[in-house]
Amino acid sequence: MTQDKFKGLEEGRIFPPSEEFRNKALISDVGIYKKADDRLAFWEERAGTLSWFQKWNSVLEWKPPFAKWFNGGKINASYNCLDRHLEGSRRNKPAIIFEGEHGDSFELSYEELHQEVCKFANVLKSMGVQKGEVVTIYMPMIPEAVVAMLACARIGAPHSVVFGGFSAEALRDRINDGGSKVLVTSDAAYRRGKILPIKENVCAALQGVEGIEKVIIVNRTNTKIEIIKGRDFWYHKLMEQASTECPAEKMDAEDMLFILYTSGTTGKPKGVVHTTGGYLTGVATTHEFVFDLKEDDIYWCTADIGWITGHSYLVYGPLTNGSTIVIFEGTPDYPEKDRFWQIVEKYKVTILYTAPTAIRTFMKWGAEYPAKRDLSSLRLLGSVGEPINPEAWTWYHKYIGGERCPIVDTWWQTETGMIMISPLPGVTDLKPGSCTRPFPGVKVEMLDRSGQPVEKGDVGFVAISEPWPAMLRTVYGDDRRFIDTYWSNWPNKYFAGDGAKLDKDGYYWIIGRVDDVINVSGHRIGTAEVESVLVEHHAVAEAACIGKNHEVKGQAIAAFVTLREGFKASEELIAELKSYVSKKIGAIARPDDLYLTDDLPKTRSGKIIRRILKDIAEGRSIGDTTTLADSSTLESLKKLSHN
Ligand code: PRX
Which residue, judged by its Cα, is nearest atom 7 of ligand 1? Predict the structure, then answer.
């Protein structure tokens, strides 16, 4: 793996916290890291900020790789997100500000959200849901999805949220794996002015599925749908009769809060299991510290509830902390490409947490869209999900953050449950492109294959060498897979699957998944590394690289590039871009093939589907496309596959 990329970056500009930011920051003393060296004491103190029905007997019981945090403690996640805020001034504070796709909007105070959740918890009970039974939720980004999650938590029924953009087949697999009897869904969803079927997918998914006995449907779009008597029920009808009294179940700290499926290197998705007490401690603490949370913040996390970011930093972290959250139903380009900025202006959003892929899309559209709106309410920006290339970081900082907002680049995973590596914005000097340092109380190491720590300045594998409170507890129903996937590389250390570089200051620079690392003639090159260089080129909007099989070299790089507005595809440009990579990283990284395409194949959460690119690069017909967000992408890609 070449390290040239990092050389320039380390010498690049550093952004220390401004004096103004530091003066008001929740954490401005670097001593927090030292203090948290006593990890168990640190996390125990943090757990103490939550509301417990009964205190734990032990902070951690660790029988590697199985952890129990705060064992013996009794707690309820819904109680922590709602009831405990009803005593004082938060009672009337907005918990949720909802912005519908059409600009329709309403707020739910903590008191109102509590009532809705209690009612729906009673509905679930009336549908026969028992403590410990998994409920599947398949919904668009509407507040009822949050109500459903918290209602499950309230009665101790783990939820399994399936992203609304998944196909019927994917939904069916997840229902079967989780063994749900009850499914919560909606009639349909609004998307870019059109109506997308949801219930129709549910009906297709349920064909041949024995387990689901009841389906509860939110009427979001007034779409005519088939109702199967005795199985399908309207949410609003059930809610009319439901009582607002529903005490929260006293759950064990280690009771399962949810399952969330995530793709692995093999085909079958893994059901990542998270439990209650440790998870809440982890997400509440990281949300508060990383986002420098203040009581009057208007916090907007743009992730869908179908992903871990939606679980941890749209729902459980912020609501445990009594924040006001914005939920947006639509997409950034509908009706116009300034929709995000219009929302920031409308609600005076103070904290925005989004993904690099979105930022790069905004760059492609141009700075004139944010420039039209008043973004002066923003005071902190966040990034998650993939490495943010320094160019995107700098653009985000300048055009969205007005050069005054720190950017917290947060590294973590579905499996980690909580942010693991991230700046603390009142303390950390930022380096564009680096997620900086492990969070206090989190022990990250960079190891080589044999498990030896790498020197500062070297690349290695990200490992987590001590248990952390929000860690996954297992893969649902498959302890073996849990052990094999995460704990088999080195004794008692978690293998994150990411490669990174540790710089001379101990900062982490995530290169990307090691499964996305290309091995060209024995030299390892991170796809993210080549991509980062490509997007530095003034003509490039986005880039994705994959390793294609090559007879001589083992693997060769194929790059897929979308151009910024105003640039035209040509043979000259292809040659220029190949040379550009060669120049920036070395001849070894020069892509063998470089395709200029209108669009990259992405999932609805914005992740590039490299498998499709590999199919094209290796001259196969394109395989499974069910997770593709926009089917029109396929047409432009198909043209490439005939090249
Ligand atoms: O490769 C890392 C990348 O996303 C992976 C985890 O994906 P997922 O479980 O879907 O969770 C995404 C949201 C937390 C990681 O293994 N990743 C996540 N955050 C970053 C990142 N890569 C670089 N920088 C980040 N900040």
Answer: 413
